[in-house]
Amino acid sequence: MALPRILVLVLAGGAGGRLELLTDQRAKPAVPFAGVYRLIDFPLSNCQHSQIADVWVSVQFHPTSLSDHLANGRPWDLDRTFGGLLTLPPFQGTDRGGWHTGTADSLWRNAELVRQYAPDALVVVSSDAVYKLDYREVVESHLDSSAEVTMVTTEVDADDASRYGIVQVGDGGKITDYAYKPDEPATTTATNEVFVFTPTPTLDRLEALADAAGEDGLEDLGNQLLPDQTRDGLARAHRLESYWRDVGTVPAYWQAHRDFLAAEPPIDLDDPAWPLHTRGGRHSAARILRGAEVDESLVSGGTRVGGTVRGSVLSPGVVVEPGAVVVDSVLLPGARVRAGATVTRSVLDDGVDIGERAAVGGDDEVTLIGRRARIDAGAQVPAGARVPDPED
C-alpha cells in the first residue's frame, strides 16, 4: 500500500503581539528558545522525524527574520529538488492576494495551491508551542476514520483554558462540542493548534464560509470552520499525552525555560531518536572563568561567565562579567551583564547591555528588556517593567 501523500502547512504569519517586545523586530516563530533554538524548530523537527518532506511555511510579519533561519531547509532535510520547503508570503495579483487576517484566511488564500498539490491529508500547525509529535501517526489514525478534521488535544490549567479552543470529547474520540476561547470553558481539554484535515471537503467548506463572509473576510480556524465541522459530527480528537506548552505570552515563555532547567527536562532536546534540529551558527565552547558560579542553568556555546548564574538560560554570545548576578532569567544572544549588576526573573533580548551595579527585575512579575536596550550604570528597573528597543 502506497504511503499517504501528506502536506504540512506551518502557520508562521501571526504578529505575535502577546510576546510584546520579543516580536517587535522578529517573527514569533523566529524567537529564540533554550539557548540555541528557535520556536519554529519544533514543528519542522516533528516533520523530519515523521518522515514528511513537503512543508509549506506561511509567513507575513518580519519575514526576513524567519527566512534567514529557514535558509533552504537543510537542517530538517527539506532541501529537495522536488518538494521540500516552500515559503508562502502574502502576494498581490489575484482575488486571493492581500494581507492575511487570521489562520482560516491564510488557508483560504493558499487553497488553490493545496488543491493543485492534491494531498491525502493536510496537516496545519502553529509555531508558538514546545512539544514533539509524530504527525504521520496522527494522519494515519485520521485516514482510518470518517472525520473531516482531527484535532490534537491536551490538558491545560483551568485558569488558562479561556485562551484556547476547548473541546468536549465523547465515545470513540468524537468531538461533541468546540468553543473558541470561551469566557467560561466547559472543560480543560484544549486543541494544541495541530489539525489534520481531509483537504477537499475542508476547502470546499472554507470556500462557502468565505463567500458568506464577503468583504469582512475570514478570521481564525476556530471562529467558524472547526465549530461547523464539529456540529456536523465530522471532528475527532487525538490526545497528546506528552509535554506541550504554548509559549505565546511572556510569562509562558519564561516558564517554559524553567521547565527545561529540571534535572530531567520534559523533552530531551538531544535525544538520539528524536533530536531537535536547528540552523545553528558556529560558536566556541562556553568559557566559565575562575570564581564564577553556575547552578541549574543552560549555558550555550560562545558565552563567557565570570559572575554568578542560577536557574537561567544563556544564549550564544552572552557575557556575565565578574561580580554580576543572574537569577531565574533568560538571556538571548549577545546580552551583556556588567560587573556588579543583578538581573532577576527577567528576559533580556538580543544585544541588551546592563550597566555596572544596575538592578533589573525582582521576584514578582517577569521583566522584559527589548533588543539592544542599554540600562545605565546604577539604574533600577522594577519587576514587571518593559524597556523597549531604543530605536522604537
From TrEMBL:
Q: Which InterPro entries match?
A: ADP-Glc_PPase, GlmU/GlgC-like_hexapep, NTP_transferase_dom, Nucleotide-diphossugar_trans, Trimer_LpxA-like_sf
The record's listing under Pfam families reads: Hexapep_GlmU, NTP_transferase
The cross-references to SUPFAM superfamilies, in alphabetical order and at most eight, read: Nucleotide-diphospho-sugar transferases, Trimeric LpxA-like enzymes
What are the Glucose-1-phosphate adenylyltransferase/Bifunctional protein GlmU-like C-terminal hexapeptide domain coordinates in residue numbering? 292-365
Domain Nucleotidyl transferase: residue ranges? 9-260
- Provide the alphabetized UniProt keywords: Glycogen biosynthesis, Nucleotidyltransferase, Transferase
UniProt KW Transferase keyword: yes
An example Gene Ontology molecular-function term: nucleotidyltransferase activity
Family (UniProt): Belongs to the bacterial/plant glucose-1-phosphate adenylyltransferase family.
What name goes with this protein?
Glucose-1-phosphate adenylyltransferase family protein
